[in-house]
Amino acid sequence: MITFLNKMRGGKQSPPGVNLSEIIWSWLGAFLGITPVAFLHYNIFSGEDIVMIIGSFGASAVLVYGAVRSPLAQPRNLVGGHLISAIIGVASYKIFPDLVWLASSVSVATAIAAMHATKTLHPPGGATALIAVIGGDKIHNLGFYYAFVPVGSGVMIMLTVALVVNNLAKNRRYPEFWF
Questions:
Q1: Which domain holds residue 73?
Q2: Quick check: is 85 in a domain?
Q3: According to a count of CB atoms within 10 Å of the terminal CB, is the N or C end of the chain lower?
């Protein structure tokens, strides 16, 4: 028990803060990355059954614009993690539509395992899988189309913005790797 408690103490120092330039570039990237997706959702498709923005995109923005060097923020992880998780989430709901509590946990756990197995671990992918299960009628009616719109199209917009914005900054480089 003591060993278990000692592990929870940590042991490393908190990383240093970032400079103002990094904060500004992160803000700009997140603003420019979320804006087109949100604009499409609220202005172009607002009267349609098409959903363009999901909550997990906010977490992806933190990674691809705020933690650009993280392995979890790289294009393979961003795109693959979301797409794999979306498919798993939809499948989980289709298999267990009357057991949402079970579909929820199966979708997230299976998405994590699949992302590990495919080297596409992207933490917001877990939320993408969960949203496919708990997202309501608009999401459920999309079925596997959910993997393409909003997920696929949204992450491609965010990736395109990340490639531009993150490479405009003098001290940034994105991506660190593609595959």
A1: 21-168
A2: yes
A3: N
